[in-house]
Amino acid sequence: MKSIFLVISLSSLLLIELTFSSEEIVMEAGSIKEKSTEDIVSRVGSFVSLLHARNDQIKDCFENIKGKDIIISDRDEELEKKDQVIKGLEDHIRSVSEELYEITDQPLTANGTDRCPIGSESGIYRVKIPGLRNFEAACNEEGWMTIQRRIDGSENFTRDWESYKNGFGDVRKEFFIGLEKLYLMTDQRPCELVIKLGDANGTTKYAYYDDFKIGNEEALYKIINLAFRSGTAGDSMFWNKNKKFSTFDRDNDLIPRDCAKTHSGGWWFAECGYSSLNGKYHADGFAPHRNGIHWGTANGYNYTVSLLSTEMMIRPKICNH
């Protein structure tokens, strides 16, 4: 750009000089009687020399621009080669990752690790269930797998359908495991569900269901089986049985109002009330617009109370439980 600007500037100066020089020649021609022939020839010679000098400067500028264009072209080729190398490395990493997944999946499938182990230490385990690749799961020593957790509001639960389908968050912190995983796990065998709740007063309550199953995506992940057995939190999911899952972009509840939008999170809504564990997190435990994390039967159906911690866990049903 600087070189081009220099060329334009020199050309402009040359034009100005040519103009003034031309005017001088005309003026001198008008007074030719007062000037000697030698003076006129001298002035014309000076003008021609000026043209040659300016022409040489312009040529030098163009040569300079050509040289810089060659340098830029060479650098572009280098960048293109580097981009190709980076792309090749990315493809290689992706290929290795695919192989690692397949290698990891084989022993997990052979060992039957399609659930959390019972009797092992609590922690993060890799689980492989038919139809999906292996994934990280938060397990405790009793074989319960955490499928949802809220503890501090660090994760955004106002998510679309695809996010709730595939899962989101960090299994070590706040997360939702994903409806597709939940469907495949509960479809394989009967599962039980336990929900732990904590409020701003430090009170912890629970709800235990000895049968829990949801449908597939075609069924909009509807809760098919749900059998409450016991718990200090009461049964606030009673009204969610046979209800489809809703998100702000997939309104599947029973009323014109979009419950997922007003409650800021996806859930098996019926008419927006009773339970909503994926609602907006309120650090002070107070939800003035009743859009928080609530479990009606645990707080006298006071929906301005917003829970500070929740944990939903499942495991294959133990027959002699």
Automatic annotation (TrEMBL):
Record keywords, A-Z: Disulfide bond, Signal
InterPro entries according to UniProt: Fibrinogen-like_C, Fibrinogen_a/b/g_C_1, Fibrinogen_a/b/g_C_dom, Fibrinogen_C-term_domain, Fibrinogen_CS
SUPFAM superfamilies the record matches: Fibrinogen C-terminal domain-like (SSF56496)
Keyword flag Cell inner membrane: no
SMART domains per UniProt: FBG
Signal peptide location: 1-21
GO cellular component, one term: extracellular space
Domain Fibrinogen C-terminal: 107-318
Alphabetized PROSITE patterns for the sequence: FIBRINOGEN_C_1, FIBRINOGEN_C_2
Lineage: superkingdom: Eukaryota
A UniProt-annotated Pfam family: Fibrinogen_C
Gene3D superfamilies membership: Gamma Fibrinogen, chain A, domain 1
PANTHER family: FI21813P1-RELATED, FIBRINOGEN/TENASCIN/ANGIOPOEITIN
Protein name: Fibroleukin-like
Organism: Drosophila suzukii
